[in-house]
Structure prediction request, 414 residues.
Amino acid sequence: MRTKHTRKYVAGIDIGSNTVYSIIAFEDENGQVNILGTGATDSRGVKQGIVIDMDDVVNAVICSLEEAEDLAGVETEAVYLTVNGPHIVGVNNSGHYHLDNSHQEVTYRDINQAIHLSNQVPLPDNREIIHTVLRGFAVDGMQGVRNPFGMRADTIEACVHVITASTNPIQNLIKAVQRTGVEIRELVFGALACSQIVTTSEERELGSVVINLGAGTTTITCFQNGFLTYSEILPMGGDDLTERISSQFRLTRDMAEDTKRKFSNVALDHISESEVVSINLNSRSSPTVFNKLEFCRVIKSWGEEVFCSIHKKLEKNHLNKNLNSGVILTGGGALIRGIKDLAAEEFETYVRVGSGHNIIGLDTIIRNPCYATIIGVAKYALDLQNNRGDFLFRRKNRLSQWGDDVVNWFRDLF
Ligand SMILES: Nc1ncnc2c1ncn2[C@@H]1O[C@H](COP(=O)(O)OP(=O)(O)OP(=O)(O)O)[C@@H](O)[C@H]1O
Ligand SMILES: [Mg+2]
Prediction:
């Protein structure tokens, strides 16, 4: 039987192109995130973060959330909802603030002013800011200052990463979830939530890139000196590979998806010329058989294309030289056998597959990279509740509410 909340639970929904994930979690007395329940329902109503079938989204959200609620034994009234899709753009911005001459030392009020200025990004009517994330400060032109409070200075510059999104796709997602009768507490940029949960603070400090290989999208997030410095969402993902398999091997989409999940392997050296893939299309006809090496070459060439285009993006943005901690692969595509070695060849750096860490509860879920984003949402929500994280501003449910409480928040951070 479900119980009403007494603990402080958080609930999240991530409407992916392939799966609607949901989660219910809480933080225990030791500050550990405990996952009580998760849900995963096939999704057909969203493509690359855009709603293409409202009813489908509504039904999948209900189904996914009920699964999580049943497991957790908790009822959900409000959720943190992810946003994703190539319409989301991350830009670096900064706000310069000239200190009053009478000042001897930088005060929290000065910091607050600089932060507010950094958040002023000119936007057309159809775009809005989802998050503004701190990248550090410069004091009198000297970059890399973590906290200028108490320093003597003429100017301080707050450096931020601003994540903006198109309003209509966001509103449609909100509408779909609200139609299920659940309130939306806040929006969360999925790639950001995901990247925080799959990386360690050391990796973010040394420099790392997180690549989430989803069904409709591939997201890239880069960290340098502990801060998020770059984010991009590419309109490519595992669905493209499924379509390629479907047309090349004459399989229905569902069969191609199934075959891909069962047989994909990009470590071609481990496959012999004679190995075959055998699929039973239906019980009446004889199985369809094709060469496994040929099949896996298709997977490998797709993987090479994806990593090559990401590599070009990193080079273009001068980010490839700062990856001391390497690349972390996550999302469903990270389950392809041999994929991390393929990525290591392309990026010429250390690559690992990442999923949630420092989390308690449902072990198999935590280890599965498909759940990285939704687990990240739970962590993000719990961090917000406890005034932690690098998030200076974030979009609230209805109004863009830019906190006047930044000063207090900032003080808590250090
Ligand atoms: N074992 C596997 N082998 C190969 N591919 C897999 C495997 N498991 C999942 N995938 C692929 O991963 C993709 C789904 O990943 P994920 O659940 O992270 O996507 P999503 O969140 O629904 O999509 P998006 O983030 O793009 O909106 C699909 O393309 C699926 O085929
Ligand atoms: Mg996803």
